[in-house]
Specification:
This protein has helices at about 5-20, 25-30, 35-45, 85-95, 100-110, 115-120, 140-155, 170-180, 185-195, 200-210, and strands at about 20, 50, 55-60, 70-75, 75-80, 125-130, 135-140. By secondary structure, it is an alpha+beta fold. Helix 8 (about 170-180) packs across helix 9 and helix 9 crosses helix 10. The longest helix has 15 residues, at about 5-20. It is flat and about 65 Å long.
């Protein structure tokens, strides 16, 4: 029978190879049918749970490469520096100078957020305002919320032309793709983003190029 240290090394090897694992995979490597045994080992390793998919994915703190929003997406799993989906949403809203719409949060977090937003509103953890006909979620701190509302109202009219409404996370995805792409054809950019599971239309890409007056240098 393997010693505790050997079993722990096997868990570490599994994470090193797979990056993200489920409890079933951990049970298999630990040769146990008990979740309690798995979590005893995980607790010693200071594990992270995904904020999506009911927290069924696990990784180690040293593995994620969090982006500027404190998020890390790996295949079907999403992790956050802030922990749970609820903590992540409230932290993002508090930390962004324009607040967020439901669509922006859904795009950014890559999961359903409405129920969590409703719960945050119910418990006065965040606030909600109506701006230009849409809900904007802001800080529960009134002074900060007023500043966020002001910034949102001053926000550039990008995307409003021709009936196209481009939310901030989509704009960011387009700009990042343009930064790394050698071809600025809207169709090609749209296809590249689709491969990365980001749905962006050619018209939206044209709007961003027009708004920022972007042209590929030859």
């Amino acid at each position: 029978m393997e010693s505790k240290s050997e079993r722990k090394r096997n868990v570490e090897k599994l994470f090193s190879k797979e990056k993200v694992v489920t409890i079933e995979a951990l049970k298999n490597v630990l040769d146990t049918d008990f979740s309690k045994t798995v979590f005893r080992y995980l607790k010693e390793m200071d594990y992270l749970s995904s904020y999506n998919n009911a927290g069924k994915f696990y990784t180690l703190p040293s593995i994620p490469r969090f982006d500027e929003y404190g998020l890390w997406h790996y295949e079907a799993a999403s992790f956050s520096r802030f922990g749970t989906l609820k903590s992540t949403i409230s932290s993002l809203i508090d930390g962004f100078h324009e607040g967020y719409t439901h669509g922006e949060l859904k795009q950014l977090l890559r999961c359903r957020v409405q129920n969590t937003l409703n719960d945050l509103i119910k418990n006065s953890i965040v606030s909600r305002e109506t701006i230009n006909g849409q809900f904007v979620y802001t800080s529960a701190d009134r002074k900060q919320a007023v500043d966020q509302i002001s910034q949102r109202e001053k926000k550039s009219s990008i995307g409003k032309g021709q009936g196209v409404d481009i939310e901030l996370p989509i704009v960011i995805e387009i700009l990042l793709e343009l930064l790394h792409s050698s071809i600025w054809n809207p169709k090609t950019i749209s296809q590249n983003l689709y491969i990365r599971k980001t749905s962006v239309t050619e018209q939206q890409i044209k709007e961003v190029l027009l708004h920022y007056n972007l042209k590929k240098k030859r």
